[in-house]
Amino acid sequence: MDIDLMMRVYPFFLEAAWTTILLSVLTALLGLACGALGAAARLSRFTSLRLLGATYVSIFRGTPALIQLFILYFGGPQVGIQLDAFEAGVIGLGINAGAYMTETIRGAIISIDKGQREAARTLGLSQFQAFYKVILPQAARLMVRPLGVNLNMLIKATALVAAISVVELTYTAQRYIGSTYKPFEMFLLAGVLYMIIIYATGRGVSWLDRKVRIT
Amino acid sequence: MGLDFTVIPKYLDVVLLGCLWTIAITVAAALVSFFGGILLAVVALYAPAVIRLPFRAFEFVFMGTPLLLQLFLIYFGLVQIGIDLPAFVAGVIGLGLHFAVYNSELIQTAILAVDRGQMEAARTLGLSRTQALRKVVVPQAVRAVIPPIGNNMIALLKDSALVSVIGVSELTLSAQRAIGATYRPFEFYLLAAAFYYVINLGMEWVQRRIERRIAISR
Amino acid sequence: MTESNDFVQIRHAQKSFGTLEVLKDISLNVARGQIVAIIGPSGSGKSTLLRAINDLDALTGGEVWLDGVQVNKKLPHRQYEKHINEMRQQIGMVFQHFNLFPHMTARENVTMAPKMLKGLTAEEADALAEEQLDKVGMLERIDYYPSQLSGGQKQRVAIARALAMKPKLMLFDEATSALDPELVGEVNQVMKKLAEEHMTMIIVTHEMDFAASVCDRVLFMDQGVVVEEGPPEQVFGNPQKDRTRAFLRKELDETE
Q1: Does B155 touch chain A (CB under 8 A)?
Q2: Closest residue of A to B77, CA-based?
Q3: Number of structural domains in chain B
C-alpha cells in the first residue's frame, strides 16, 4: 500500500468530502420537502391530486436516478433549464429522493390507528386540527427510522453526480485512480470518508429516534 | 434548441440492443446477488470466527460506500492485480456483490426468525445441523424474504445504469452513443427512461406472480 | 443382551437449568410394544423427559438406552453428532405444533429424510409416502402444502413423516393439545391404530380418557419426579397418592 501517496492526496479527499456533505444536506432538505408534498398529494381528498402523487412516485422510483440526472443536466438546456452541475445534482437527486420519502411519510401517516382521528373528532377538533394535533405528531415519530434509511441511501446516491463532473468524493477517487493507477488506496480514502459520514448520520438518526420515541 | 423526437427511429435499434444488454446484466447480477446473498448469510451466521469476521467487515464496507465507487474499485482494481475482465463481467460482479450484501442482511434476519420447531423436527428425523439448515431452515427463510429481495432486484435494475461509466454498452451507454451522434440528450435519455420504466413494470409483474405462487408454501 | 422389558431404559435421568431441577433422578423401563402415557401438570418435567429420550434436551445426568444402545453416549463432538443422528432415525417424534415443513408438500415432508438419509430412489420414496399417508388417511391430500391442511390433517401427516423412517419407538409430545376439540379424534384414531400394530410408544398427554383406553401404563409426574405409576385402571381408578388424586380431580373438573 502506498501510504506516501495517500498522505499526499488526502487533503483533496477531505475537501471533496465537504462537497459530498453539502450535497447530501441540500438534497435531503429538498427531498423532505418533495416527500411532504408528495405524501400530502397521495393522501388528498382529490382524485386528481392523488393520481398526480402516485405518478410522481411511480416515475421517479421506476427509472434510474442517473438517467433523471442526465435528463435534467444535459437535456435541460433544450427546454430552457440552465443549471450548473452542482445545482442539477441537488435538484435531480432531491426530487428522486422525494419520491422514496413520499412513500415513507405516507406509510407512517396511514399506520396511525383510525381510532386516534375518531377520538380527536369526537372531542370537536376539525379534520385539519385532528391531523396536526393528533395524527402528525405520532406519525412523525414513526418516520424517523425509515427516513434514516432513505437518508443513508441518499448519501450513497450523491456519488452519481460524479458522472456529471461535480467534484465530490467519488469523482475525486475516480480522478486519482485515473492519474495514479492506485485503485485500492483511492477506494480506501474515499470509502473511509463515506463510512464516517454514513456512520455519523446513522448515529444521529438513532439518537433522534430514541429522543422522540414514546415508550 | 427545442425538442425533436423524429431523430429517434434512426437510432432505435442501437437503444433496443442496449435494452437487451441491460436485461442481461440485470438477470446475471440478480442471480449472483440471490445465491451470493444466501451464501453470505449462512457464512455470517454459522462460519467460524476467522471466516465470519472478515465477511462481516466486507459487508460493512459494501453497505457503507456507494455502488459507483465499488464499481471503480472492482473494474480498475482487478486490472491492477493483473485480472483484465470484460466490463460486462466486472459489472455483474460489482452489482451482484453489492446487492448480495443487502440480500444477506434480509436472509440473516429471516433465518433467525424461522421457528425453532423446524430445526427440532428436522433433527428428530436424524438430519445433521447442516442438512437441516440446507433443506429446512434456509429454504423457508428465503421464501419469507422473497418480497424485499424482489424489491432489491428492481433496485438493481435501476442501478445497472451505473455500469455505463465503466463502459458496458447497456441502455444508458447506448443512449449516450445516440446522443453523441445527434446532440439530442433530452430525447434519448427520455427514451432510455421509458425503457427502464417498462422493464421495471415487467419486473414488478413477475414479482407479484412469484409472491402469489410461493404464498401457498409458506 | 436386551431383556424384553427394557427395550427403552431411562436410568437416573437428571436435568437442571442453573439451580432449577426439572428432572430429579427418574428411571423408567419400557418393554417392546408397550405404550406408556406420561401425565402431569405443566412444568412437571414430562415434556423435558420425553425430549431427553432423543436428546433434543440433553440430560445433565443419567443415561438413555434404546434396544441395547446408549442414546446419550459420551463421545467427542463429531462422533456424537453422527451417533445421535443415527439414533434419532430410529426414534420418531410428534410435536404439539406439528412442525411440518411449510415449504414442502405432504409427500415431500414424508420423503425428504428417507431420500436424504437412507438413499431411497424417487420411486421408492413415492411408494413409501403413499403407503404412510394412506395409513394415516391422508392419501388424497398427498400433494397439498401444510397451509392447505387443517390442524388434525397436519398432525396426521407429521405422524406419517415420523413413521416413514421406520422407527423402533415413537414419542408423542402433547400431539393433540393444539387441536380444535373436533379434530382430536382423527389423530387419536391414528395413534390407536399404531397401538394395535404394537408400536412402542411414549405419550405425553393431558387426555386422560385416551391414556386410559390405549396405554398399558401410566406415569404421573409432578415437580420433576414420578409420583405414581401403574396400569391405567389403578392410576385413574384407585390412585394411591394425594397429589395424583388432586391432579385427576382438577383435570376432571376442567373437562366437564
Answers
A1: no
A2: A183
A3: 1
Spatial neighbors of B180 by CB under 8 A, at least 6 apart, are none
Q: Nearest chain B residue to A170 by CA: give it.
A: B69
Smallest CA–CA distance, residue B119 to chain C, in Å, is: 9
CA distance A129 to chain B (A): 36
Q: What are the chain A neighbours of B207 within 8 Å (beta carbons)? A: none
Instruction: Find the domain containing B174 and state its range.
Output: 5-217
Task: Give the best residue of B125, B140, B217 to mutate against chain C (max C CB count within 10 A).
Answer: B125
CATH number at residue B76: 1.10.3720.10
- On whether the CB atoms of residues C153 and C141 are closer than 8 A, the answer is yes
Residue C45 burial (CB < 10 Å; 0-12/13-18/19+)?
buried
Residue ranges of domains in chain A, CATH in brackets: 3-212 (1.10.3720.10)
Note down pLDDT in tens along chain B; length 218 residues: 678 888 888 889 999 999 999 999 999 999 999 999 999 999 999 989 899 888 888 888 999 999 999 998 888 888 878 888 889 999 999 999 999 999 999 999 999 999 999 999 999 999 999 999 999 999 999 999 999 999 999 999 999 999 999 889 999 999 999 999 999 999 999 999 999 999 999 999 999 999 998 888 87
Please tell me the distance from the alpha carbon of residue A80 to that of residue A67, in angstroms, as a whole number.
18
- Residue count (chain B): 218
CATH number of C33-44+91-254: 3.40.50.300
Q: Does residue B25 belong to the interface with chain A, where contact is any CB pair within 8 Å?
A: no
At position C219, the amino acid (one-letter code) is L
What is the value of pTM for the model shown? 0.87
Inter-chain CB proximity B121 and C99 less than 8 Å: yes
ipTM higher than threshold 0.95 = no
- The letter for the amino acid at B54 is P
